[in-house]
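Reviewers of the previous submission asked for a worked example of the structure-prediction workflow described in the proposal, so we include one complete record here. The input consisted solely of the amino acid sequence. No template or homolog information was supplied to the procedure at any stage.
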Amino acid sequence: MPADPAARFADLMSTLDHPMAIVTTASGEVRSGCLVGFHGQCGIDPPHYAVWLSKANHTYRIGVLTEVFAVHFPAADDRALAELFGTDTGDDVDKFTRTTWTRGPDDVPLLDDCPTRLIGRRIAWLDAGPDHVCLILEPISVDGSGPSTPDAATRLMFRDVLGLEAGHAPAERQHPT
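From that input alone, the workflow returned the following structure tokens.
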């Protein structure tokens, strides 16, 4: 095992599996969305949800202009949707012309094929280092919850999207435009 803490951290993270999410938002007529692996509940009373967005992607640049975001929780068979939102960049394509969606509160795009989601209002935007920001959301609506919601075994997991190439090249991740 490598002695370097960063390498050991990478080794540990590679053994973990976690659900993926697709985050969408809009500013005016500009819609954006991306696949995220860093997210989770971060408050109980009041309830809050944290999402970490890459500073390299289009969703980050649109997100700084908006207050409402949707966090979609894809099922295991939604790999094509994950591929769309994880490999194409909104800088080059309008992902929303390639899938069906509905306007939600404040025009946030809601993915019709991914009905398990929360819609939240941004209450904090924290710079989390050189490559990500942490977005804290207060839920304003939750869809697809309850007894008929797929359990964790049917969620799209990190292992299901291994091999997808991000829409931005590594060099672009260092200095987003």
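The chain has a mean pLDDT of 84. We consider this example representative of the routine output the project will generate in years two and three.
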